[in-house]
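so my prof wants the structure for this chain in the tokens format not the other one, which i didnt know existed until like an hour ago. anyway here's the sequence
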Amino acid sequence: MKNKILWPVLFLCTLPIQAQQDMMEAEGSVTLQECLSRGLESNFSIRMVKNQQETAANNATRANAGMLPTVDLSASYSGDLGSTRTTPRSTNVTTTERRAYDGTVDAGIDLNWTVFDGFSVWTNYKQLQLLKEQGELQTRITIEDYVASLTAEYYNYIQEKIRLKNFRHAMSLSQERMRIVEVRYHIGNFSRLDYLQAKVDFNADSAQYMKQREVLNSSRIKLNELMANHDVTALIGIRDTAIDVNPDLQYDELWQATLATNASLLMADNHTEVVRADYKKIMSRDYPYVRLNAGYGYTLNRYELSSTKKRDNWGLNAGITIGFNLFDGKRKMQKRNAQLAIEYAELEREDLKLSLKSDLSDLWQAYRNNWQVMLMERQNLVAAQENYEYANLRYMKGDLSGFEMREAQQSLLDAEERLLVSEYDTKMCEISLLQLSGKVLTYLNE
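here's what i got, hopefully its the right format
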């Protein structure tokens, strides 16, 4: 008796709970753009990479490149405490002075400036600007990865909700079938085998429904984590109820956009320029360097034994240094290594370009194939729905067995599942294509 009422009771208990949850989610429903907006403000990975970007921007200054002079203010005091013994030739009498103290005070301001060093300073500044751009590109890559991940999980959550709805519908159909069989079993129209089979099918559908609720909860937790919600179990109401696939993608446009705006490709270009700057810094050693120095100082000397009691001096001083490094034993090797580094960076960039084209071609083929499958599955679903309705009419008349009715019901559920999977797979291809072509941030403005 317990087994007979267990699953119906569970079914009746879970439906109000699910309905209440759906109502709570609907009251605070959000769009994809709202989810992305929240996440971009709070996600820890984005906040960390923005911190690194700000550090790179702070480093990109003329002073850090060595283009500005250095100014030092210094002061010192020194003393000499000692004894002196003197023997003049004229008298040959030795005179001793003990614990005589002489002191010196120095204070001044000094300026040093490398005016020219073979354009090395200017190359340093350019390299710092490139590293600043590199930080911006790294932030963009992180944001694009985040937008793609959150968008994918957003549509996965929609997929799981639709799947839960399909399982709930299948469970309600099985419950209705079991009710009909039970009534007719008691009046003798159906056998106990029909009743037991209907009960087994209902129990199986109920178990599948409950497992799907767990899957949906996991997707909701993942969404909360991506948006950096402290309460990862918080309910999320998704306004969208279907997986909307973009039908207007064009391969040539995607490839041209990839060449122009793909962040990884731009990062490779940036890295090549940084390596070329290293080569220019090595070449700068073939030029002379010019350095200026100037200062203003004050010196005070105090003497205890000398005929002069004290002497002080103050004034300006300036100088210029011109030099040329003739030989350091490693310049030729460093030039060759720098040239090899440039060649390596260029080859790495071309390899990345080829890899992006390969990935784009694979994703495009998958996108088009999944699109065709999706259109076909939509037609199959219509046919499966008509087949179920016809089977149900025959079943109600007693012209169809329980096994055949179950097969028609399962065919409907399978058609719904195949369509759902094809829609989701097509959407994932779309997201990946837009990410490769540097257009994934368009999800923020839709």
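also thought this was worth mentioning. The first helix runs from residue 2 to 27.
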